[in-house]
Design a protein that fits this description.
Elements lengths: L4 E5 L6 E6 L2 E6 L5 H11 L10 H14 L18 H11 L7 E2 H7 L6 H9 L12 E2 L13 H12 L2 E2 L6 E2 L1
Parallel strand pairs: 4-5
Antiparallel strand pairs: 1-2, 2-3, 6-7
Helix pairs in contact: 4-5
Length: 181
């Protein structure tokens, strides 16, 4: 996985990281506890990649991610991702999840059904737990079958997931409509 560089950028939920290569973004990192820890995580994920100023298209992607995390509506679907190192099933999951609009949610089972694999809800959850592109691949928009939040592997866990859904104005709960997040 050839990474050209990485950089950090500020958002409403903290400093995020972004890494890029010749064929698109290689990864996005949701905030760690502080900027230094986000930087350490990026260096661990992309060893040898220099921290350098991003090119204009990566700056634009970072600005759009920051705007989304600040409450603006943007599905980020047109941002180019380099999924060359992503296994086929995970790539399919990520492509399906990218189609979920801000403020909307699906369950792990609904994603599996849309992939034509209705028994694969757990595999969908595992793939989303390894999502290298959050929030461009909006794994926070996927919930457990009963409308509960389900898991979330980013720092802060479910609290971060719920905060992101709240920023987007999503409604969750049994039937995903009983109460606002």
């Amino acid at each position: 996985m050839e990474v050209t560089g990485f950089n950090l950028f500020d958002t409403a939920i903290g400093p995020c990281g972004i890494a890029w290569g010749e064929h698109g973004l290689k990864g996005v990192q949701l905030p760690e506890a502080d900027e230094a820890r986000t930087r350490v995580r990026m260096r661990r994920r992309f060893p040898g990649a220099p921290e350098v100023p991003p090119p204009p298209d990566v700056c634009a992607a970072a600005a759009r991610i920051a705007a989304l995390l600040g409450g603006e509506r943007d599905d980020l679907r047109d941002i180019g991702l380099d999924m060359s190192g992503v296994p086929s099933f995970e790539r399919r999951v990520y492509e399906c999840v990218r189609a979920i609009a801000p403020g909307e949610t699906l369950t792990y089972g609904e994603v599996a059904a849309r992939l034509g694999e209705p028994g694969a809800a757990r595999a969908v959850g595992q793939a989303l737990g390894r999502n290298p592109f959050a929030p461009i691949v909006p794994c926070h928009r996927v919930l457990a079958a009963d409308g509960r939040s389900g898991g979330f592997s980013a720092r802060g866990g479910v609290a971060t997931k719920l905060r992101m859904l709240q920023i987007e104005g999503a409604r969750i709960g049994a039937g995903r409509g009983l109460f606002d997040v």
